Amino acid sequence: MLGYTLRRLAVAVVLLWILSVITFVIYLKVPADPAGFIVDLQHASPAQIAHAHHILGTDRPAVVQYEKYVVRLLHGDLGVSWPTVVFFNGHVQGAAVGHMVWSASLVTGALVFGGFVLLLLVAVPLGTFAATRPRSLVDRLSLGVSVAAISTHPLVVGLLLQLFVGNRWKLLPASGYCTMRQPSAAAIAAWKRFAPTGVPEPCGGAGEWAWHLLLPWLTFALFFVALYMRIVRARMLEVLEEPWVRTARAKGASELHVIRAHALRNAIAPVVTMTAMDAGMAIGIAMYIETVFGLPGLGRTMIRALAGLQGYDLPVILAVTLVAAAAIIVLNLVADLVLIAIDPTVTRRGRGRQRLLGRAA
User: Which residues of the chain have pLDDT under 50?
Assistant: First the structure.
């Protein structure tokens, strides 16, 4: 298992490197001048524009720029955000991209993790229940509702939930985000004195944090619940027909014990695999949901980096891309390790196939 994990980590490093190269090359082909972050391109002289390029380091060859980026990355430095750059005492200063992207990734991670937890809490019981009563009214009704949910874009689902549940019925917060920490007295005092009309009061704490994320979690879960429920149902139908399940029933085990202790454990493996496969889609869906509910996650951070009036904020774009890719790779690795813990024969089957291919060669 250790060798398998090390091989997967090596592949992950290579994939991240390839992704960083591709992202950097795409940036170089974008027709935008980053010097616009420092000087007014319409009124600045060529010397001023050249000095701005020198400050940002974009006047150097592409290979040198990428090399400096990789060296900083290996030291944990993701650079500074270009729109915030100032040149002071011969040094470039600005907002640290690492802190910005880390804060945003915590929000996106909370949205994806909570959405998957809610998804599994709904999909696994519904799929199991439907498998025990195939072609019943509950089975057909759940199929119809789930197909309708997965056929609707998450942006539409989020807007509908926001309109009715949040704005019209006032059951849950329609937008906004609260941190896990309580707001300081200074922040509340500043809000009372300087905040414009309509700006909500600073909030925080575990309860407020979860309360404001309920609608985003529900939006996330509704998009995936249909697929996961049908996978659990199909797998459970197969497992319930296995000889060892009939043997457990013949020995007098209750139906609940057979499903929980025997069938469900063997039916859950495809769900773990699908969770890893859907990691990339989940992060993409989370970015849509962040836009609807005003969550300060990776999606909004990327949109702001791409929508700058002066140009594209390359350090933020590269950082968000690499963080999202690293999250996908890590989630796939974790899912593989969980799958091995559930079924240790997975790696043995893989080694057996390799030996068989070696003999055939």
Answer: 350-361
